[in-house]
Amino acid sequence: MEKDKKIKLGISIGDLNGIGSEIIIKTFEDNRMLEFCTPVIFASIKTMSFFKKHFKSNLNFHGINHTDQIIDGKINVLNVWKENVNINFGEEDLKIGTYSVKSLEAATQALINEAIDVLVTAPIHKHNIQSDDFKFPGHTNYLAEKLGGKSLMFMVTDALKVGLLTDHVPVKDVPSHITSELINEKTNTVYQSLKQDFRISKPRIAVLGINPHAGDNGVIGEEDDQVLRPTLQDIRDKGKMVYGPYSADSFFGSGNYKNFDAIIASYHDQGLIPFKTIAFGHGVNYTAGLQKVRTSPDHGTAFEIAGKGEADNGSFKAAVFMAIEIFKNRNEYGEYSKNPLKKAPKKKQ
User: How many other CB atoms are there within 10 angstroms of residue 289's CB atom?
Assistant: First the structure.
């Protein structure tokens, strides 16, 4: 990619009854954002004009029908649909969910076609998107199928990065999902992401135990000793600095997480509760391991405040900047990998 060329940043609109439109508008009301990227919102000019009027915004949108009409320096809106949409902020609506899917599918196809460089997804409502044609529990699973690679939910800030062995899995099923193969796959994905996406040359990774107190030597479950511990030892023997399993209850409160470049939790809430406690409002949900870059804010549709002008766009703006940074880091890493005599990317401390 040419150094002076603006990164084309695709945005899927999310649930139209949620806060997605508000955080998008608030982010790009700062016209300095157009110095970093060329936004392309996958929705419709009619819908975005409704949001503009509702939130009393002065933004100017550039409506387009094809990606070859994208213009740098404009907030492009690609018309995925033409009809008027009946929007009722804060309401769960299956019909509105179909527009979330239309936006996501169009943006993903543009990403595959390289019409856009990166994708930032506004929050969807997982129930509203379900249909006979769309049976994915969320963005991550859909994008993994469409974009290729070994996807991993990676919650990130500059100072804290938390990945998951299992994501949208019922707690009762977590132990049966965690196999040696899965542990190797997820730790490799985190390790590679830290190197190519975040320019950390020698990553240090901590893995949290499956059971309370990492099983307490088998007293509180045997999975940690029989599966997790020996697999991590094998990974270390191969040269990666991957440590654990650590007892999850004290790991964050003690500050131990600060000694590692990333933490891998065994299941969803074990990782996301401490992450959102520490970083809520400026964290980013990054789908690591894919062949393309996708980020999103660390929150949901927030129906309870939708349409009220109260939404904080900090996490969405962070997701925009994170997508841009990762895209640039990947390009630099790719150039460095092709020519190892070139100066290596500077390691982040």
Answer: 24
Q: Are strands 118-121 and 161-164 parallel, antiparallel or unpaired?
A: unpaired
pLDDT in tens, 271-305: 999 999 999 888 999 999 999 999 999 999 999 99
According to the model, what pLDDT value does residue 3 have?
A: 53
Specify whether the CB–CB gap between 215 and 207 falls below 8 A.
Answer: no
Region of 270 (left: φ > 0; alpha: ψ -120 to 50; beta: rest) is alpha
Beta bridge partners of residue 64, listed in sequence order: 78
* Spacing of C-alpha 258 from chain mean position: 22
Q: Is 152 helix (H, G, I), strand (E, B) or coil?
A: strand
Please calculate the CA angle 68-315-157 and round it to the nearest 5 degrees: 105
DSSP 136: -
SS3 279: helix
Q: What's the pTM value of the predicted model, to 2 decimals?
A: 0.90
Contacts of 129 (CB under 8 A, 6+ apart): 97, 100, 101, 136
Q: Which of 120, 20, 13, 116 is CA-nearest to residue 72?
A: 116
Q: DSSP string spanning 87-132? A: --TT---HHHHHHHHHHHHHHHHHHHTTSSSEEEE----TTTT--S
